[in-house]
Amino acid sequence: MTDETIRRERGAWLRRDLGAARASATDAQTWATRLQLSVPGVLLALAFGTSLIAIGFAGGRAHEPWAEAVFLAGWITSVVVLAVAMTSASLSDRARVTVLALQALQQSFVRWMYSPLYFAFPDELQHWRAASDILIFHHLFHPNPALPVSPGFPGLEEITTALASLSRIGIFPAGLIVAAVSHIALAGAMFYLYRRVSGNPRIAGVAAFLFALNPLHAGFDTMFIYQAPALLLGAVVLEIAVSDHGGQRQQRERATFLAAVICLAGLVVTHHVTAAFVIGTLGVVTVTFTIFRTFGPTAKRTLSLFLIGTALAIVWVSTEAQSVVDYLGKPLSTAVRGVLHFGHQSGTVALPATHGSPGAWLTVVATIVTACLVLAGVAAALWRIPTKTRLTLPRIFAGFALSYFGVLGIREFASDGAELAGRLLTFAAVFTSVTVALVLVPTWQIGERLRRFVRPAAVAVSVVIFLGATMSGWPAPWELLPGSFRVAGFESGIDRQNREAVQWFRANLGQNRRVACETSICSLAGAYAGAYPIPDEPSLYYTTAMTPSVVSLIHRRRIEYLFVDMRMSREAPVSGHFFRTASSRAGLQDPAVPLSGLTKFRGVSGIQLIYDSSQIQIYDVRELPYG
Amino acid sequence: MDSRLARIATPGYAAVAAIVVLLRAPPALSAVLAGPLVLLVPGLALLAALDLPGQADYPGRRLVLSIALSLATTALGGLILNAVADLRATPWVIWLVAFTFVCSAVGWLRASSAEGLAAEAVAARRSAAQRFRSAPWHQLAVAGIAVLLFAGAAVLTEESSRSHYDKPLTQFSLAPAGGSNGHSVRLTIANLTPDTEEMDLTLFRGSFQIATVPVKVLPSHSWMHEEALTGGVLRATLTTLGGLEPFSEVSWTGDGTAVTRAPRIAATRRRRPSGPAKKAS
Q1: CB of A449 within 8 Å of any CB in chain B?
Q2: ipTM, two decimals
């Protein structure tokens, strides 16, 4: 069978789209399949949902008890409308892309509404420091103690500082714009990728919609982090790699390939994990194509991109980004060891709902539903797609979707696995989304009675997946709404008290000071004060007297200043830890710090209390004598 | 519009944006023009140079590719700039405009293609205009209401977040006074509340109270006072008027010993091994 024959037969199968045909035939009979939405209708519904979310946020800031219900109502309204629109058989391709872009726009807008005045998430603050250093020193690769690996992957900061330099709008607005534009463009890129994989616009639309429901997408991938532009670049590379250029001129195919190489090079200097994911996927696709199909044009293209990507990554890591080996090596080896030894330990942060919070059952239900749908999707890809069409890509993606179970394994069995699993879910979702979409948009013949339930079921499943993702992704369940301060929370750990203290610190003491602090203040000090944060010395605070070991610790770590947040004595850390701890302590709950542990520095010879805002104190310990 | 003329639009925009940026226009205007210059125009020009047309089955793909290529070329261009110049506004403008001009020139030379960028762009614009004209008025009204709702959400967010952030805060700080050679310290009270703050500042030297001063600080203002260091511990507290318990406190205990910071760091550095440990013979 020649490639042209394969292409013709596959085209015939794809055009058949039994799901759409059957849906239109029975549309007159069932309201569920008849319901159609126009793009302006979707826009209005999303605007209404966004307004509810804004009211929920305002209520959260005013500590109103109804706020969370209104917030969730806003999101659920949006998800239901989007699901109804994307499962529609009559929506045009252009309308599908527009609706997906609107979904991404809403996610970015809600992200801004959550923290509209400044970056508050630790990762964002780390990148803020890297961008700030570029604006100060006008060069790349300046060491960043807040995130040592980030100078080696300066793509995000380069784009942001270019925009900030040209427009003079500051890092915060420039970062928001870069992250939002990347996120919205990613929605389109995922649709085109899934269109290439499935060959069916309806499946592609539902798959891209489901991808946007993954736990990290709305909250994390919209942030000012290097993953935001990297995901777009990675999606474009994969889309070009698996595209079928049948009938295209060779010159044009070369041009497309060159575009992919440029995006791949941009990706390698932007984000390590996304680059590794894309290059690895290209390699496995090449091998699978070669084994199960032929070494045709697609396999040659993926192989070429794989080799170029690998070469670029090796050159980049060996010259400018050597720190990434240590940065990724430790957590990966810890995770692998944990899985191999079945060390059943929950992680610290990423999936807090699994620790018995009110939303825990939603995470469990959503995980079970997703797992069942992935298995059903794999079965559908293997047995329902006609073999003679040789649609290898859906099968490859369905096979890769089984990585979801690997991520679940890491979450359950690896020490500190929840953190790693949470981050990996975005990449697993690249495959699970299209696999689940194969089930939610059945393209094979099923009974009429069953068919009328497919669309409502798809909408219901979307809502369940969304709720599970909300409870297991970002923001964490305890800070779904902004407005409540929690020491050592993530965004909720940042308020005016610690921000003003850090700004005072920078204004009066300058940069590059070594400061001991809890994680929230250390994030702020690393970013806004240009300090060298030391967030991993809990004994400095938990010890209730100025013992020789405390003095020795201060000297050994060459600590110059100490930040003390008196609120550490009032409540236990909501994230489990006030301070950065070893992975062996992941999942454990630290207690509140004794008040005497926080006040022991007062009046000690050689320690000056130089700042007090009643909640935050700053001590100068530079003259603390030995002994 | 002729296809070649359409290809002039991209470098033309880049040139206008560059002039506005270099003339240091207000940030809002600069942002409106610089946003596309960084995030869209280089990619559009590169697509023109590569002569990649859109595909009917993939609406909007050219736009997505343009954004992705812009991000990639800006990231890679930054590496080149970093090697040859400073990463400031002017080198960035030169890079972005030069890249756009070169790619557009290549695209201009390849503009004879029937499936060129411009023809497609013109067709897309016509199509969009037709869609807009043919859109029923109620759809436009629905879109208008949606935009108003988004704007309302933005206003509500702005107001609620500012009122939440503006929680009253009084900063009390102490630092060696400039030019005093460590013989005096400067006390500062910063009033970050919306109201005038009145409080009592009490000074202690050792365990002796030496003074109580009423202090009045206007909103968003600071109050400063220099105090000599004549030995012993200097402690200062703030209490509300008529209050007993201080709500804020700073203290200067002196240097304690003659050990200074520099020798300590030097000692620490000396202790750090600089290579493989040698066995004692």
Answers
A1: no
A2: 0.90
